Here is the input.
Amino acid sequence: MNVIEASELGRRYGSTWALRDCTVAIPAGHVAALVGPNGAGKTTLLNLAAGLAAPSAGDVTVLGGQPAGSPVALDGIAFVAQDTPMYKNLSARDMLHLTRNLNRRFDQQYAESRLDELGIPLKRKAGKLSGGQQAQLALTLALARRPRLLVLDEPMAMLDPVARHDFMASVMMAMAADGVSVVLSSHVLSELERVADYLVLMSRGRVQLAGEIDDLLASHRLLTGPAAEADRYAERLSVVHARRGEAQAHLLVRATADEPVPSGWEAHPVGLEELALAYLREPAAAVLPGSRPDSARRRALRSETGQRTEVTK
Amino acid sequence: MTALSVPARREEDASLRPVPWRRMGWVTWRQHRATLAWVIAFLGAAAVLVYLAGRQVYSAHAAAIAACQSASSLTCPGSIIAFNGTNGFLSNGFMLQAIPPLLGAFVGAPLLARELETGTFRYAWTQAFGRWRWTLAKLVPLAVVLATAAGVFSLMLNWYYQPYFVAGNQNLSLTETTPFFPGLFDLRGIGFAAWTLAAFAIGALAGLLIRRVVPAIVATLVAYAALAFAAGGFLRQHYLTPLVTSNLNLPGSAWIISQWWTKGGKFAFSGWPPDRLLQQYCPNGPSGPVGPFGKSKPVAIAECLTPHGYTQWTAYQPASRFWAFQWIEAGWLLVLSVLLIAATVWLVRRRAT
Here is the structure.
């Protein structure tokens, strides 16, 4: 089951497309990180999935084919929006009560004990809580709904490092205990590296890279070799990004560990951050599950039809 | 961080029943009780002021009636002036006309605009209750409560203005107004509640479209003023076909729509007679005393022209039609309000913003 599935999804604000031709499927059972620079379309994609906005093009379904914003979708998804909007003049207790009244399920006992453990006083107004406490309150409200999918938009933007750690620990605990799928967005990949096992990389309103992080790491390598030869190989390998120094060139290529390495070159496994940055620097490059990207396919075809031997000699 | 309890595994529910409507009752009450308290306090304070002012009007009216029973009474002219001058700021009603738009703008406009401005709609509209049901469950009860409060308050206004409609005031030179007087018509009867409801509905839609509280309030006031001006100035006189009479002595309660003159069965001129005619037939000007203590000027002119074959015709709405007009106006305002609220809910549902 895919918790979020978009096909050729687009959303236009005025004449600018905040999201365009977005095709992506995020499977259930993951903590999926939606990563990209500011303005990449992350919030737009999440708002569309949460049913807050209607698509301008294409469509989006959630929880295994339910239309976004439909009663089943609203019931099964807990959405914590950016900056965790809350009624500032309501107390934490009132926010619990409010959320209980607005949902079919609400685990009051869980919510109260969680706030108690976090040291968030029930009587305190939401507007008087610290940024970290507000985020934790919003997360508590979301988890107490016992969702099938938890969507967090930039949940850590407002938090200090300790609060970030606590927040992510709470999310992971819920994930482990309740089997809730999680989709969370951030413009800082390192925030999510330790918790996410699925990556959706976005830039300029499009999805550039999507897949399980282990698969993505296993299918990319960093080749280091003489700079003089770099151009020649770059023609033939499916290079995502090339970084050239004086003597050495570093090519981030799509290749598995058992593919042979050209002589004179060294292959290294890539880190997630390295991988993401390489793609973000090359907006034309894209890897989506089930299809090889055009540019990579072209290069792959070329190398497969003849000159591959030369490369691997 | 200590180990946290985690919610128990959710049971799969095959039949998904919507969250019951009544659950929104607490939500609406909790989120808007402060607003409602302000509305009640505001109307309550206004009612007290109107009551105190009303006692002055009633006593001045009673004093004038008593003083003028004998025509030669020396205190009669003074008490007439006293009554006619009592609470001059309230007697034409225009100040109280501001209450419905203020209520509508300050209760209706922020309702959605504040959610959109502060971003809390991202919380409210992603809960299982659903966005359009949430909107409906807020708009309808608030509209009903607000209109009811305004309706109750207008009973006070009904009482306050009673002395101005007493038949026979005019003969005593006391102020006698038509119940259709633009400043008073919709303060009384069911008009006040209907206009308040319409202001609220305008505010709700403006808040949704404009998405910011202060501009939405301003837009509501402007839209309301335009609607009220159009209704009072152009629409209302056409609710029912006016009666036409050549009787010169219409009661002060009649609402005169237009006047014209005929001569020999043919249309001569409308409104005020041309100067040429007045110079020819009424060389001394309208004869006799003019103004509040005698025959009104138009009647004097008519008496001067009638012997020369002219007939004055008056199209008017009799005071007896007051309630018919009230129901017509309240009726279309109710329809308009329902349409505006329906449009608001529909736009929220369509995720147009």
User: Anything to note?
Assistant: Residues 294-312 of chain A form the longest helix (19 residues). The longest strand of chain A covers residues 2-13. Residues 231 and 290 of chain A are 29 Å apart (CA to CA). Residues 290-313 of chain A have pLDDT under 50 and may be disordered.
